Predict the structure.
Amino acid sequence: MTAAHEKGFFTEENSVEVVTGRNADARNERLKFAMEVITRKLHEAVKEIEPTQDEWFEAIMFLTRTGHLCTEWRQEFILLSDVLGVSMLVDAINNRKPSGASESTVLGPFHVADAPELPMGANICLDHKGEDMVISGRVLDTRGRPLADAVLDVWQANDEGFYDVQQKGIQPDFNLRGVFRTGPDGRYWFRAVKPKYYPIPDDGTVGKLLGALGRHPYRPAHLHYIIRADGFETLTTHIFDPDDPYINSDAVFGVKESLLAEFRKVDDPKRASALEFAGPFWEVEHDFVLAPE
Amino acid sequence: MTAAHEKGFFTEENSVEVVTGRNADARNERLKFAMEVITRKLHEAVKEIEPTQDEWFEAIMFLTRTGHLCTEWRQEFILLSDVLGVSMLVDAINNRKPSGASESTVLGPFHVADAPELPMGANICLDHKGEDMVISGRVLDTRGRPLADAVLDVWQANDEGFYDVQQKGIQPDFNLRGVFRTGPDGRYWFRAVKPKYYPIPDDGTVGKLLGALGRHPYRPAHLHYIIRADGFETLTTHIFDPDDPYINSDAVFGVKESLLAEFRKVDDPKRASALEFAGPFWEVEHDFVLAPE
């Protein structure tokens, strides 16, 4: 009997070569390359784990149930990618920044395309619920020069950890969302409320997996930004509250050292009054540096 | 600024350690180990492929559509596991046989639990469609001793490549299925028809993937067996027609050298008459060797 591999039959030893060898006539080289890597890593994982037939079937059913949870309104596979660090890894690979430029992080599922453009200084908190906060800073290039006409698209959760789109009828439409455009000094500022940590949806397969792994589902408090300026790479990022209880254990791994902002408590009746705040408030200053295109 | 990894924040470099580091309190060690391997291999694959955000989303949508195709009657994730060689790899890992024992292969989706037990020699082809075939051999232990009371559960596709359960109302119920029990000589024999190659379901995401990879969806002609005997490991296997056009390119990688049977054409009116066949027929002889439990 000749060795099995001479006829191209599948064995434990040659499994990767036999499977990927079938892709000689693939329609495009990129797909062929990706499937070569995916097949190789998948077989390496199976050989290392040595799953029983029951464990293999459990994995099949996990993927099946995850697929069944996906609807127009919910994407459980993206959530799975998030909690396994894959989304942040893809973000990192696609957003390697030149020295000095602000770092990116995940977009998340709560961005809304048509938030209103507001005058600088506007209060995006429409229901005045929560602790007042004023946010300011500059949009700069990597040489430190201010960028005029930079557009900041901002959104955040409220003081209970919910976005407006999660509480339709409870929060006003477009609550805690706004679009701001910088002047020649590159400065921006607006008023809002201090955001709170919140859980990712944890009633599905991903939530069960987190539970079984002894992990919590929380994201530390943050503000979202998309910042655009002609001639520069669009920046999708957050700034985080460094004092949040979950700052070192974001369920989706979105925190980066450079995205920690300082949230200062200010007790200054004159400044509060000028900002139309009733009492003490939070102040955050944060500059963003855009990479050239 | 301290290095990001000192605070445990996620970077391209430390991505595996940060993600798997969260599983310290996992409920069981086996899950923790499996998720450590899966996360590591997944990150290795992402780092090697460097997918764009669009490619990542394409992968998410492929998994989503695959999940949506899964019903009580169809398992597209098992099909995906099959065409990537994962099912056969899990089979290989779980069925490493002692020297001399018959090798296993995939169960497939067409087994039926309650096929009738038939007297040795019965013709399992109930509609007499196709080329007559007689199959015989012995069930042995690894020392070559015949096994009495071994139970062979046999099923196969017809001469057009369809199983009875795929053609309800066209083929008779339990067509080309039967259960046989060996006597003291360990011998079995039954009559059937020559099976034909057939495609795996190729109208879903897996079929599209095969197409894009330049692969066909066919499985070479085969007969299925589950063989049970007290004190021995149950053997789930096929025997294959070595002259099948797809013998070297089974879409699910189920072929093994040792599972090739010889399909001999016999033109012998006396033997045909004794077998109640109208003319020339096919003859297959194949012994099965069971591993001790």
Q: What stands out?
A: Chain A has two domains: 4-83, 100-290.
